[in-house]
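Record type: monomer structure entry
Structure origin: computed from sequence
Chain ID: A
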Amino acid sequence: MTTTAPPGGPVLRQASFLRLWCGTTASGLATWALPFVLGLAVLDRGLTATGLGVVLAARTAGFLLAMPVGGVLADRYPRRAVVFWSGAAAALATPFIALGLGRSILLMSVAAAIVGAGQGACRPAFQALTAEVVDEPRRRRANAAITLAVRVTTLVAPAATALLATVLDTGALLVGTGLLWLAAALLPPRGARPPAGPRAAWTAMPAEFAEGVREARRHPWFLAGLAALSAVIFTGYSATGVALPLVSRDQHGSEAVLAGALTAYTLGALAGAALMARWQPRAQGWAALAGLALYGLAPLSLLPPAHPALVLSAYALAGLGIELFNVPWFTATQREVEPRLLARVSSLDFLLSYGLAPVGLAFLAPAIGAFGPGPVLLACGLVCLLAPAAAALAPGARHFSRRPG
């Protein structure tokens, strides 16, 4: 059952949103392309596998450290300005990754940390800027268009990197990702935010972030949904990162199942984003949490003996489900959270959900070694199924809103 379609014309015909969409797409391409470019550097022997791990870890550290700071800044200053300076910092730091290639891992790591910081700071700013640029009736379609672009980049970035590698060296490809960050900095439009009040001191940042946490606590559905999302990413995402390659190698003797499952996941996510651009369930919160629970099929499909068709089907449904969750989740957050605190709440969302992913990856491998893949995958699957079900019981979870349905 659906509600009536939202008023207004197609959101991509709105010039300001089209600029914002292009900027977010450019940042997504730059984010996804960098690991593949550095992987090519390993193949060319310009970088060791250990060096690759150090550089990517530095980028992740920069991302996580900058996330809460970026949320505070994007609520303190115009969101457009935060996007610009974040993207510009990443653009300026990227050539130094190329400069350090084959010369200095330290230089590459510092530059990668700055790129990660730019990426982390711009995420909550982009989220808040979307709420300023697009009116509420069209935000669901806007968020669907953005997440659709994100999923397309996961397919396009590796393929485009491999194609360009036939005519460009690794250093040039790295500089190319910097140009994408420059586009991400320059393209987004100004928002419709009123002038800011008195500027707070830098020492007030922890207190300002704590104000965002208090705002999040005012929305029980948000805390419950964030806990469920974090649990799913900690377990299900980690199963994908650790167990899926092992199953593909040990049970099927090649990487074909790994590649097929990841492709099926992305195609499912594309289908989910396209569906959510048109479909608005009446109980959108419950529908979103049911979609999130579909991720539980991914680790359960890897239980031995894992048939390839079952694995691919499960990952396609997991991809579909994650977008059934993402689009209404982002839209509800933009609608329900106080506008002046939206970037801080968004940064808390990204920090707790995606920030736990590296912890889950580090935890799952020794757990599989100690208990075997079967019990660990079963536990991951049950967590993915039960955490969203528990979140559905929270006040306001049915509609992702504190208001009556």
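Annotation 1: The chain has two domains: 14-136+164-189, 214-391.
Annotation 2: The domain at 214-391 is CATH 1.20.1250.20 (Growth Hormone; Chain: A;).
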